[in-house]
From TrEMBL, chains A, B:
Known pathway: Amino-acid biosynthesis; L-threonine biosynthesis; L-threonine from L-aspartate: step 1/5; Amino-acid biosynthesis; L-lysine biosynthesis via DAP pathway; (S)-tetrahydrodipicolinate from L-aspartate: step 1/4; Amino-acid biosynthesis; L-methionine biosynthesis via de novo pathway; L-homoserine from L-aspartate: step 1/3
Annotated binding of substrate, by residue: 47, 74
Chain sites annotated for binding ATP: 7-10, 173-174, 179, 184, 209-210
UniProt protein name: Aspartokinase
Family label: Belongs to the aspartokinase family.
Entry's EC annotation: 2.7.2.4
Domain ACT: 265-339, 345-413
GO molecular function annotations of the record: aspartate kinase activity; ATP binding
Keyword Transferase: yes
Short name of any one Pfam family annotated for the protein: ACT
Length: 413, 413
């Protein structure tokens, strides 16, 4: 008998039939004697419908009022799931974020959880009820409704698990676990039994859509065992846990992540004086544009080239800023390139293994894939390459680091 | 400069265009210097959509969870209207029932308002904001979301006006006021300038759909001047107020109400012993069936006939109960008739005028309309007639009591 927090996403509760399936699943867990807190998202499509309503009203909707509207999506789902459970004989009760209460800061649209009052939840659990909590939402100190941003329901689940000191937080999704890489790109990708918080964090920040970064951060910070599972298929999923809990046979590399969301900006012929990096990147950051990788070339003739990546959506704005900066500091030219992709290898095993980087570079060069930028962390190496080589690079690295499944796994998604 | 509470129903906020129109209307009032609290319903169709979702989940949805779901309808509208106002430069803020806080009892689906905390609203008004409040909803002492029942937004408007001691509560609808009778039945029906709370109450309980009974009761109890107006047409509407505020020229009869919602049940040959009425009606009331009019015939041969009306939806259930009762008390037979209609004349003027009833009966008999049942109150006389004579009866009484418009009013709905 354990206390488990289970989170079901929008697709898992996207119709009356799906909600009924989720209810039966919960009934099964309840029959095993577990205490259950269920976090749900809005029914799939609902959040977009609500955003559409707001956009019809005005082009740039006020964010406080947007949160008032968006939070209704999850509120409908908690009511539906709770009434379904009651109708099949399982005592259940729904709670909005404000009712719990899940207190956040006042950053509407991207609020951060500050405190969870677990007393009411505990009392409902003690009374034998399944508690259904609206994901993605909270309330600030003044009683305003807030939302945590897209995918915030995962964070709600982890935060509740931390507050309640739950035995496990289970995230039910439309995949049956975390894979060594995207199975749509590499057929032989394998489901991982276990992965560390840190690795998951790198994978998530590198573009893996399985879990929200903030949820993984939160889970790592409070050491909440997190499990990714398929909503409607049986299976152990992938457990995300502390490094110490991993088996000794942990491979060097756990997975290959990639994304096509970035664009590369280069400013050439920059006079190489102290503080030039700040002069270039300061105005970009000031415009709230997030910078990912940065490379500065060695100086030649007292000038240098400066390259960095931003989200493709920000490319045009960044170029405008850079052109102004180039004039101010006397740089030669500004160039942008969006036909790039980032490929990363991730693994805590890197810490104790030398030569991982050179193995990666060698494998890529063997296929004539030119590396445009490199960035490393303790457990990750990322390279930027020409976008057209992306699939080839991922497959090459997947096999070079021996991640391919021993036999064809016909069960993966 | 006045403090006005304005309530806009589901049709008035049924689309982005309508919400924009309402926002412009509010902007106009604000420009006149008024303090405004706006109560809104769910967008038209939304409440039915939400009920549909719940019905897809289970046949008999839990009422607490139903209220969690239903309350989202108004929550979306307050967000949309508040963001629209802000986008056209009017400071505005939305409040759910729980945020206000509008405290109710715990009768989910038909909760009654017990207390309104007006402090926050007052502070927002003092800060120059238009406050948008979700109608139809509240929160009980334990923090559960409640709803006031269909049409409850009118009640929210009146209750807020009472709590804030507003100068007027304006109910915007799809009609331009209260009419002497339904203009679809009598072309010469006139809009009333003023009508008393009591008269409005009788008309509402007799089937006039313009205002919710509870809202009128509430307004009368706290003497909140209530005005019914058209959402998108200019005009003074109808003011509902205390009797003392009416002009001296008040006519004897203010309006003719009618409905086709009732069925007539008769139990014949009942042994006329003390307590027999209770033996018949007790089991009906115990089954939660509301009884409207009751007539007991004079006794003949120690037996009597007993007739009463119930809502047509309850007719079959009532007949079943009566057949059992008839066996128990030794009555002869039970008969039901749904082809009836109720017509009522309403007016505070009745108090000071004799002969109103005989004038009514004479007018009906002149057209061969047989009266099946009669019921009277201080300011109302209702008769049950054969349904097929309904329109004729209404037109006859409308003209007999001189309610017809002096000339053709081409402006009414």
């Amino acid at each position: 008998m354990a206390l488990i927090v289970q989170k079901f996403g929008g697709t898992s509760v996207g119709s009356a039939e799906r909600i009924a399936q989720v209810a039966e699943k919960i009934k099964g867990f309840k029959a095993q004697g577990h205490d259950l807190v269920i976090v749900v998202s809005a029914m799939s499509g609902e959040t977009n419908r609500l955003i559409g309503l707001a956009r019809d009203i005005c082009a740039d909707p006020d964010q406080r009022e947007m949160d008032v509207i968006l939070s209704t999506g999850e509120q409908v789902t908690i009511g539906l799931l709770a009434m379904k459970l009651k109708s099949i004989g399982i005592p259940a009760i729904s709670y909005t974020g404000a009712q719990v209460r899940i207190e956040t800061d006042s950053s509407f649209g991207k609020a951060r959880i500050q405190h969870i009052d677990e007393a009411k939840l505990r009392a409902e659990l003690d009374a034998g009820k399944v508690v259904i909590v609206a994901g993605f939402q909270g309330v600030d100190g003044q009683g305003n409704i807030t939302t945590l941003g897209r995918g915030g329901s995962d964070t709600t689940g982890v935060a509740l698990a931390a507050a309640l000191k739950a035995d496990e937080c289970q995230i039910y999704t439309d995949v049956d676990g975390v894979y060594t890489t995207d199975p749509r790109v590499v057929e032989s990708a394998r489901r991982l039994e276990k992965v560390t918080f840190e690795e998951m964090l790198e994978m998530a920040s590198l573009g893996s859509k399985v879990l929200q970064i903030r949820a993984v951060e939160f889970a790592g910070k409070y050491n909440v065992p997190l499990r990714v599972l398929h909503s409607f298929k049986e299976g152990p999923g992938t457990l995300i846990t502390l490094e110490e809990d991993l088996s000794m046979e942990q491979p060097v590399i756990s997975g290959i992540a990639f994304n096509r969301d970035e664009a590369k900006l280069t400013i050439r012929g920059v006079p190489d004086t102290p503080g030039v990096a700040y002069k270039i990147l300061g105005p970009v950051s000031a415009a709230n544009i997030e910078i990912d990788m940065i490379v500065q070339n060695v100086s030649k003739d007292q000038t240098t080239d400066f390259t960095f990546t931003v989200n493709r959506n920000d490319q045009r704005r960044t170029e405008e800023i850079l052109r102004k900066v180039a004039t101010d500091i006397g740089a030669r030219e500004v160039a942008g390139d969006s036909a790039i992709a980032k490929v990363s290898i991730v693994g805590v095993g890197m810490r104790s293994h030398a030569g991982v980087a050179s193995k990666m570079f060698e494998a890529l060069s063997r296929h004539g894939i030119n590396i445009l930028m490199i960035s490393t962390s303790e457990i990750k190496i990322s390279v930027v390459i020409d976008e057209k080589y992306l699939e080839l690079a991922v497959r090459t690295l997947h096999s070079a680091f021996e991640l391919d499944a021993p036999e064809q796994d016909s069960d993966h998604i």
